[in-house]
Specification:
Length: 421
């Protein structure tokens, strides 16, 4: 009996698939369709709903086309991921047991959108929502999600760009943030792609007027050599109940240690360095992918001041950072610290692209069907305690110490690197 269906292979990419008009897949629990075109009247929603797939628990669609309307009624579905489902205009999901939903770049196009898509999601048990797509409460209906624990939104662009798509993404992001009042953890990304001096570009952070009440924030920052202190301060002052902060610096290889040009206004308003901010609940901070710039040091120094009850800070450096520089940076952080704070560091983080890598599950040595990983980290202890490989998802964090790696996710390794473990 068929238990898993996986159609995503270089030989089948671009192939056409016609859904059978009848038939029951009584044992099917996992279905993954990737890089295919659905031909004829789309009956996918009917095919994966409970009457024909009564035990389906996980559904993944990636890079598919020919699906304008997807309507699913499933009592068994637990996880659902839609990534680049081209041409999707209407999405209706009724799944009382659904725990995890990811919708990425299905409605949004790289041009002006003339027809607003319609989505209606009924998932009262949903715990994790990643919505990187069009969101307008007039057309996107999200039912009560009282069990929602984790939310991930579109990256937010800090300074105005001549890119209409980025403007739309900011709008979707702020709308979604206003939708929820209370969430355990928020995955948020600040992006500054401007490589040159910032002078007259509009500062967009003021568009974010509120955040949900959260206790854990994953904050990813793409600074591109510019300061990210003011934008981080703007967010954190709306998170006074925060208990744990995971801060990751992304895109450090593009301009690894280059500070912004003279006259750049990216550090304004400078009052963020002196204004009071009481993060009286923040007890743990993780700082990942450091390269030791002045901008990084300035933000971490302020975190020590703002977090009055901080108990633990863990730092991880990018692989390009020399061990001597990492130790020097840690010593500087120690000078900011207080005796009651436990400092963990330094470890080194090497980011790999996942494209075109054959992924193998270490346990069982079988092909992984969990979907493409967002990033792969090689973490090497300065003390030589060991080397670990681990996959880190886009919405789950890593907890690195000098002699231990904990990752609440899949343990997946590229097969050609297993000999190095």
């Amino acid at each position: 009996m068929l238990r898993e269906g996986h159609l995503d292979h270089p030989r089948t990419r671009g192939s056409c698939l016609t859904m059978p008009p009848s038939g029951i897949f009584a044992r099917l629990t996992n279905l993954h369709l990737g890089c295919i075109r659905l031909r004829g009247p789309s009956m996918l929603g009917e095919a994966v709903s409970s009457p024909r797939c009564p035990t389906l628990q996980k559904l993944t669609l990636s890079g598919t086309s020919g699906l304008g309307n997807l309507t699913i009624h499933s009592d068994s579905l637990l996880e659902m991921t839609l990534t680049r489902v081209h041409g999707l205009q209407q999405l209706n999901v009724t799944a009382p047991a659904l725990k995890q939903l990811e919708v990425l770049s299905c409605f949004t196009k790289g041009r002006m959108i003339l027809i607003l898509p319609v989505a209606n999601i009924s998932a009262p048990q949903l715990e994790s929502l990643m919505w990187w797509d069009d969101y307008d409460p007039k057309f996107t209906q999200l039912s009560k999600m009282e069990n929602l624990q984790c939310l991930s939104t579109f990256p937010f662009t800090v300074y105005e760009e001549t890119d209409y798509v980025r403007e739309l993404q900011n709008r979707y992001c702020t709308r979604l943030l206003r939708r929820f009042e209370l969430i355990h953890s928020l995955r948020f990304q600040l992006v500054n792609d401007l490589e040159d001096i910032i002078t007259n570009q509009q500062y967009l952070m003021e568009d974010i007027t509120r955040l949900p009440d959260i206790t854990f924030m994953f904050l990813d920052i793409t600074g591109n050599g510019h300061s990210f202190g003011p934008s981080s301060f703007h967010l954190l002052r709306m998170c006074t109940g925060l208990r744990k902060l995971s801060l990751t610096f992304c895109g450090t290889t593009r301009r690894p240690e280059t500070l912004c040009p003279s006259g750049c206004v990216c550090d304004q308003p400078p009052s963020w360095k002196t204004k009071e901010l009481a993060l009286n609940c923040l007890r743990e901070v993780e700082v990942c992918n450091l390269i030791g710039t002045e901008h990084e040091a300035a933000l971490v120094e302020r975190l020590f001041v703002w977090a009055t009850v901080l108990q633990k800070m863990t730092v991880t450096f990018h692989c390009s950072v020399a061990e001597s520089k990492a130790k020097e940076f840690c010593q500087m952080l120690q000078s900011f610290s207080r005796p009651e704070i436990s400092m963990k560091g330094a470890t080194f983080c090497l980011i790999y692209s996942y494209q075109s890598l054959p992924w193998t599950d270490l346990v069982g040595n079988s092909r992984c069907t969990a979907g493409p990983p967002r990033m792969l980290c090689k973490l090497v202890s300065c003390a030589g305690a060991g080397t670990w490989w681990s996959f880190c998802t886009s919405h789950l964090g890593i907890n690195c110490t000098t002699c231990e790696l904990q990752c609440v996710s899949y343990r997946i390794f590229p097969s050609e690197m297993l000999q190095d473990v």
